[in-house]
Specification:
Elements: H1 2-16, E1 21-23, E2 27-31, E3 36-42, E4 54-61, E5 64-72, E6 75-76, E7 89-91, H2 93-97, E8 100-105, E9 114-122, E10 125-136, H3 140-149, H4 151-202
Parallel strand pairs: 2-10
Antiparallel strand pairs: 1-3, 3-8, 4-5, 4-9, 5-6, 7-8, 9-10
The protein binds 2-acetamido-2-deoxy-beta-D-glucopyranose (NAG) (2 copies).
């Protein structure tokens, strides 16, 4: 019910065409340590004063929200920015005059991922727009993980090598024993023959 009311309100505001906030891109895909430029566009009015401009951009995660950028009466308010984004966000002032909120976010972190909402309020109207950022871990991270994976087939190879060596040693011992046995039995046989031969003449 609440959703329907909200939808109705947003629809009527769209129909009136008073004020809109659009996103240039609804979803951004980035890697850790990358720099990104987020962009929102809002309706401008030539005779409007910059001091009547309010911008509030935040990252929404689960139940909490982290402030990415805050412009109060046309003045940046970095003290209200969340520590996670400290020194990493820059707003393009020239673009702002043209109705474009261009936020350069540098050295992205994986926990920067999420839904970003920007609310714009002016003396001629207000609205909001949202986009999504997905920051994946840097590529060299799986590389460092690989050596921890590799030893398994290596140890497996080592085990089969040990098994092979053991088998070869057992075979060698067996072969030695067998030849020794044959040698012994031959000599024994010969001894028997000798004994037999010795016996035979006596017969
Ligand atoms: C990202 O931005 C920072 C500072 O804003 C800069 O020093 C760095 O060179 C940039 N990196 C890339 C890959 O553009
Ligand atoms: C983020 O990007 C990764 C890699 O492209 C993908 O597997 C994952 O599903 C994405 N997550 C979201 C929430 O879009």
């Amino acid at each position: 019910m609440i959703c329907r009311i909200l939808l109705l309100i947003s629809l009527t505001s769209c129909v009136c065409g008073t004020f809109v906030v659009n996103v240039t891109q609804t979803s951004y895909q980035a890697e850790e340590n990358d720099n990104i430029t987020l962009e929102w566009m809002f309706t401008t009015k030539p005779d409007s004063s910059s001091t009547s401009l309010y911008i509030f951009c935040e990252l929404l995660i689960d139940v909490k929200s982290l402030i990415l950028y805050h412009l109060h009466e046309g003045v940046e308010s970095p003290e209200s920015q969340d520590r996670q984004f400290a020194g990493r966000v820059q707003c393009d002032k020239d673009a702002l005059r043209e109705g474009r909120i261009r936020l350069h976010v540098s050295r992205l972190r994986t926990n920067d991922s999420g839904l970003y909402l920007c609310e714009v309020k002016t003396d001629y109207g207000g609205s909001s727009g949202k986009c999504h950022i997905n920051v994946t871990a840097a590529v060299d991270q799986p590389k460092t993980q690989k050596p921890t994976v590799r030893p398994q087939p290596e140890s497996g190879g080592r085990i089969s090598l040990y098994v092979g060596l053991t088998a070869a040693a057992v075979l060698a011992v067996c072969a030695g024993l067998y030849s020794a046995y044959r040698l012994c039995s031959k000599r024994h046989h010969r001894e028997n023959v000798v004994v037999y031969e010795n016996i035979c003449p006596a017969e």
